[in-house]
Amino acid sequence: MTGPDGGPLDQIRLLGLRATGHHGVLAHERAQGQAFGADVVMHLDTRAAARADDLAATVSYAEVADDVVAVLAGEPVDLVETLAERIAAAVLAYPAVQAVDVTVHKPHAPLRVEFADVELHIRRARTGPADLPGERT
């Protein structure tokens, strides 16, 4: 993704965010809950913030982390695809973020074989103000 000058955007990465959620299609996943994780890569132009040394010109990764964890621990959904979309929408609500990569981790997915993790990765980009209900100011 490119910035206003045609150059690549900068990235702020939040890796290994975790929360207990009650997501899944099986009854025991909803009842017992399990650990979920998320990695978030925000694509934005940080030059103005760096020049002014001003948080208001960028995005607070602490606020974004809180929002992502709230989605992970929040309203149950059946699919990790839905979870990832909700996280992407929450991050794109920050005006400075032009695009976001979201990886959702479900390390305790109900598989019948040994595995390390189940991951879903999506990329979503801002296409215009009409796409962002609830945009932060």
Q: Briefly, what is this?
A:
By secondary structure, the chain is of the alpha+beta class. Helix content is 28%, strand content 27%.
Give a written overview of the molecule.
This protein has 137 residues and is of the alpha+beta class. It is 28% helix and 27% strand. The chain has a 4-stranded antiparallel sheet. Helix 3 packs antiparallel against helix 4. The longest helix has 13 residues, at 61-73. It is elongated, with a radius of gyration of 16 Å. The two termini are 23 Å apart. 25% of the residues are buried.
Q: Strand-and-helix sequence, N→C?
A: EHEHHHEE
Low-confidence regions? 129-137
Distance between the termini: 23 Å
| Helix content, binned percent | 25-40%
Number of strands: 4
Give the biggest beta sheet: 4 strands, antiparallel
Query: Structural class of the secondary structure composition?
Result: alpha+beta
Mean pLDDT across residues = 92
- Categorize the overall geometry: elongated
Radius of gyration, taken over Cα atoms and rounded to an integer in Å: 16 Å
Strand arrangement within the widest β-sheet reads 1-2-3-4
Strand share of the residues? Answer: 25-35%
Describe the protein's topology.
Layout: E1 10-21, H1 27-32, E2 34-44, H2 47-52, H3 61-73, H4 80-92, E3 99-105, E4 119-125
Antiparallel strand pairs: 1-2, 2-3, 3-4
Helix pairs in contact: 3-4
Features:
137 residues; alpha+beta; four-stranded antiparallel β-sheet; 4 strands; disordered C terminus
